[in-house]
């Protein structure tokens, strides 16, 4: 099966091409079938690869397709690397991808851009697979930018809406900022190691002696890329805006897969980070800050998707915290569990929105429990998973991260726990406001409320199951389990783990778990108290809030800050350069030569007075000068 | 007995330089075209004098022969020049060179 | 020598035509005579005969006189219409031919006397021709200015010759060169040299002795201007070069710096002043001054390239000038003026004429693949070899300015519109002439080896 | 022989075209251009993939000056010949729905231009190179003057004089070198040797003399001010010729002539020159952001792109030079596509103002897709042709200076800003009065865009054939350069 | 000794009359002063043993050329002080320019050392016989060519003089 790995990205690509070229002529059913079928096929192959790889001793297989770029000693083949890490991601991408395709058939059924949507979606899957399959950084970069493109296309899917288009553009450009860092990182890798293929780079890095600052530089540059793609501070603002896209897109791209590309990249390059403690420190700090920062914003949002979006940013921060403290497995584990429950939550939110005929404001919902029971149940399970309710998938992965954080730095742990508390609070706030209480929307909406079709609920159910049981593959030793995932990923992180030794006593781990659970319970209680018992409602638009609340509600005015500090100055500089420097100064000098010649011409012409006397006078003076200069 | 054996050649050179300069002065000084013409003739005569002086000094007749050619040319120039002057006068009724400044710029 | 005899006879025959009343035949006769002269002249190639110690018909002389005679044939074809309207046609013919004879003397002299006579034989008919439009005040003025200033400059030239004679006891340029080479040159000699330089600079219209040129070129009848710009300039440069190359090379230290400065000034003043001109003729006059600047570059180089570079340049420039003056003549006549605006829309009414003019102007501006480009390039090479890199840079700057005004005409022809939509009719002779000059311009640009290999 | 055919076939075709009147001129011109393309393809198949100069011909031309008609192609030349022969038919095809007055002259000038361009790319004699270099200027000048837009006389004239100023400096540089050739010849090898025999100061003179010519042609900041005006005012085909091919004369000149002739000069002044190029990248990108005229926007973006190419070449390493080669090709294809899109929009809506457009995607989704692909190529998205070049170039510049690369890389971001912004204001949103009746693409137009898009993707996914053509030559060149500067 | 005084006297006359040519207001006077200048120069010629040339000089210049001038002045009726005056500054600049020229010429020529001064002075160079030999042997070609010059000048003068037939 491993030999057939090229089929994995190829199938969605073929799906994209068929739908892209002939989509208009095909029926919606056929389009949906082709698109989902392509991803399902890829999933099947991925599954095969996963098991084959698990069964064989050779854990890293490179499959060369063709030579892509060569320039001197730079030689970049178009080739794939199959190892535990990539095969795991293949499963997540194709698996969740398939479910979301399936869901979309129902969700997008009435949209006129139905086939276009599936074309983009397939293309996205293709690029995402390329990203994780590439055997060198440049192929990763291809996928990296490719998913960015698809993200752009899908956020701006409803292209008549200017705000959506702006959101799409913003996403692309913010990603590009990160991408530049990534690209420079790749180049620095090439300059340092003479190659950019994983195997060679990591092999050399293991024995790297010399100036560690180069490694730090590489790690930081790569991390800039990750910051863009995975929406970390300060490049996160695009992700909440990206909710402009259809909800399945939010689920697939902006929760489950694309945004975790940064985690993939860092864990893929784990050896480089391990070699640079400073870079790891940076990653951890950025991660935890993002986690907290986004969580606080999440506390005050009223748009169901926005809450989830900030939650995503926050969770991504956790993953980076994990990476930063050396818990690579924990990070990947959290990627996986997060993919399950966040996809679930988004799809659930999509189902809610579907039911609410497009309404996204939780202030206008409430009491939906009885109208859409399946959605409600799955959403509740997802919420429990994300807050880390014991036994649910999120519990295990979050616990692993926090344990490592504790070991690394107590403050990081504390902040992490604080973030978890907030997560719990805003998730339950969301849950309570949406499903509990009584309906606050219009009559029309109420009348219209209905459960989603099967094609939408089945994915919800599957994902709910996964969210609940997904954690089982990573039960820590301390709970008497066996960390299958860690064992599976061992070959990938082997070299790093040799350098990062973990030694946490079981007692400490129990205490940490206990603290986390009690904090969660506390936050849950607060939320319950406030939104169910007291039936508090978030303030409506226009109501005055206290300044801090207002600031948080306005997302700390970061967008406005960027607008005023970056975009406006750039526009101003552009205008100034254009109107003043370019037209007046640079071109002015050029034209100045012309006018100078004309001016001089006017002066010299005056000498040509037509008067013989003057002519002769000049001649005589010139003769005098000639004789004088030459003879005296 | 020739002057050249008594008078240094430099005197002749200086004399013709002075005469030449007077010719130049005439060209610069006057506005009447005919006088200017005459000043040019004076310049040519200064040259002639110089050539003759050199010729005698060097005992070489070529210098004096050259004077013939200058005379011929002077005559030709004067003939043509006066003819042009006549036709200028016919049109402008003036021999003032300051009137001849239609062509300029 | 053959050329000189044939030309003198031709001039006399032209004069006689009036008396024996075969005026109708005289034009073809002159053309045939000139062609014959050209052929005979060309056969002198490689002979190197010295006549009476006065004229040396070496390859230099043959090459330049061939150019002169060849260009004069083109000129005669171009000036065809001009003569037909004049009652004194035969007189004009003979005057032009006499002056051509003077030009031939100027390229082949080996004695100061011949140089002097050659210059005067060339110039005196030109004074007459410049003022030949008797009713035209401008023509009068041109003739008069030319004469007065020409005579004035001749005075300096002669003073210089006299001083050099005094210093070297000879009028023979080879003997003078020998005296110079013995190192016996005195102050008198240098003063003489510099005064001769002044006299010749006047003839080639180098700044600051150029003031006559624009006025005279503008005032003279257009064909005469063309003649002055081509034949007179070529002959003057050949004479200049012959004298300074053979005779004064040994004392180059005295005069090169002056010529360098003059060349630079000539390039800049000529080109810059041309920029604001509205009269095409006057503009071409300034451009002619500017071209003198380029040729001075070749002169000042004073190396193996000098002779052939100036030959190439004069040829290229003459062909370009004949063409542009020819077209100008047509346009001025049809549109009633020689301002640049009268070229407006020519490309629409007369694409052929516009194309011909464009080629000529490109050549004058020095754009490949025309003859003018190669000539300029060759001159630059010569100057570079002589170490005058700065002068080349000035020349480059000047060329750019040159492009500015030449392209004014091109833009006028192709871009601007004219209400007068009627096409100008061309005579067959002129069509033939223009075809030949265009071909010549391009051929010389692509195969300059034929010319530059000669000297 | 094939080189001669490549050079002179367009000239012959151009002259023949002058004799043809009427509508079929277009078709004949297209036919000729396609034949020329076929000839170049034949050359590609004959080409041996090594660093040698092939299809070499050397005839004595101006013997007394040591000037030869010496032509030949190595990989570098061949790639640019391919670019030329590939783009000219496309450019001719783009004009099929236009009615130019005096078409025979128009197409004849285009083919004459092709003649000169091919000549520039295959010349192996300094003088011949210069002649072709200048020759290329004349047809484009007349194309712009006769068929251009407002104020064309002044603008094209400025362009002409500006570029001529540069070329004359180059001529001075060549003549200067010529003096130092042993047998007084313009042969490329002799000029290389002559240049390399100079010390660093004199190589510096040569460097500036020649670099100015190339910098103006490309154009590199601050010698660019002729470019936006000229691109904007020229007729579409003229703009395409200028930006698609002619600009590459400058970059090609740096590779073929400047690096080998004045290696020490390049090394000595590379920092300054690269700094200028990088400033130009940022400068032009920033200005592009605020442009309202789409054509002008692309003109500025072209300055940014070419700045990166220049920086990559001057970095003087294999990645930089090879990247520049690929980027020349990509940029040529992309910019022709973009200008064609401008033309399509302008002919349909009579405006290029970004603010008055919008919503075309609603009316013509097919066009939207094709536009998007060209745009992606232009912003160097991976798997489009633009990426290969940009990556290699940044890589090359990085090896010279990391900071330069970082600054140059900002164009990646700014490029996305202005391209997406213009895409949004042209294609997205709601339609308005101007765009609601946006006519569908005709067959010819579709063909052009499809060819361009196909090229963009094909060379992005599988650039190997092109890279193989140039790589040996580039390596040889860079090795020579490194040897000369003693690295 | 007497030769020396004659030289001084003739030089004085030549310079004075020359200046008078330039400075006198009436053109007729100028012509007459010029004739006198020519006579003084002819005296120098005699002094320099160039008797034939002196004769020719008188005949050609004083006899022919100056008559031509006189004739034209009379014809144009210019025998009055009609010439408008240049302003003072122009006159001053003219004087300064020619003064500078004089200074430079004199300055450079005053110490001029001759190279070819023959010790064997030949008093016969200026005689007709000698001149004739030189003219018709060495300078035969220029002599012949001069005919072209004169013919050209004649044709030209006639051309300008005669009324054009329309």
Please describe what this structure looks like.
The complex is a heteropentamer of chains A (632), B (105), C (455), D (487) and E (166). Chain B is mostly helical. Chain B is built from 4 helices and no strands. Chain C is mainly alpha-helical and 455 residues long. In chain C, helix 3 packs antiparallel against helix 11 (222-247), helix 6 packs antiparallel against helix 11 (222-247) and helix 10 (212-219) packs antiparallel against helix 11. Chain D has a two-stranded antiparallel sheet. Chain D has one domain (2-484). Chain D is globular. Chain E folds into 2 domains: 1-80, Four Helix Bundle (Hemerythrin (Met), subunit A) (Up-down Bundle); 127-166. Chain E has helices at residues 2-23, 27-47, 51-75, 88-109, 128-138, 140-161. The termini of chain E are far apart. At the B-E interface, helix 1, helix 2, helix 3 and helix 4 of B face helix 1, helix 2, helix 3, helix 4 and helix 5 of E.
Q: Main beta sheet of chain E, described?
A: none
The percent range for helix content of chain A is over 70%
End-to-end gap of chain A = 99 Å
- Sheet/helix structural class of chain E: mainly alpha
Strand and helix order of chain E: HHHHHH
The overall strand count of chain A is 2
* Helix proportion of chain E: over 70%
Radius of gyration of chain E: 20 Å
Biggest chain-to-chain interface with counts? B-E, 74 and 86 residues
Oligomer: heteropentamer
Q: What's the helix count of chain A?
A: 25
Helical stretch tally of chain E: 6
Strand portion of chain E, in percent? under 5%
Order of helices and strands of chain A: HHEEHHHHHHHHHHHHHHHHHHHHHHH
Mean pLDDT of chain E, to the nearest integer, reads: 84
The secondary-structure class of chain A comes to: mainly alpha
CA radius of gyration of chain A is 30 Å
Largest sheet: spatial strand order of chain A: 1-2
CATH fold-level topology of the largest domain in chain E: Four Helix Bundle (Hemerythrin (Met), subunit A)
Shape of chain E: globular
Task: Supply database-style keywords.
heteropentamer; A: 632 residues; mainly alpha; 25 helices; 74% helix; C: 455 residues; 2 strands; 78% helix; 1% strand
Topology:
The complex is a heteropentamer of chains A (632), B (105), C (455), D (487) and E (166).
Chain B: H1 3-6, H2 9-29, H3 33-58, H4 62-92
Chain C: H1 2-19, H2 23-43, E1 49-51, E2 55-57, H3 59-78, H4 80-84, H5 89-108, H6 112-130, H7 137-168, H8 173-181, H9 187-203, H10 212-219, H11 222-247, H12 252-275, H13 280-301, H14 306-335, H15 346-349, H16 351-365, H17 371-385, H18 389-414, H19 428-446, H20 449-452
Helix pairs in contact in C: 1-2, 1-5, 2-3, 3-5, 3-11, 3-14, 5-6, 5-11, 6-7, 6-11, 7-9, 7-10, 9-11, 10-11, 10-13, 11-13, 11-14, 12-13, 12-18, 13-14, 13-17, 13-18, 14-16, 14-17, 14-19, 16-18, 16-19, 17-18, 17-19
Chain D: H1 2-19, H2 24-46, E1 54-62, E2 67-73, H3 75-94, H4 103-122, H5 126-135, H6 137-147, H7 152-180, H8 188-197, H9 200-217, H10 226-233, H11 236-261, H12 263-289, H13 294-315, H14 318-349, H15 360-363, H16 365-378, H17 385-400, H18 402-427, H19 443-461, H20 464-484
Antiparallel strand pairs in D: 1-2
Helix pairs in contact in D: 1-2, 1-4, 2-3, 2-4, 3-4, 3-11, 3-14, 3-20, 4-5, 4-6, 4-11, 5-7, 6-7, 7-8, 7-9, 7-10, 9-11, 9-12, 10-11, 10-13, 11-13, 11-14, 11-20, 12-13, 12-18, 13-14, 13-17, 13-18, 14-16, 14-17, 14-19, 14-20, 16-18, 16-19, 17-18, 17-19
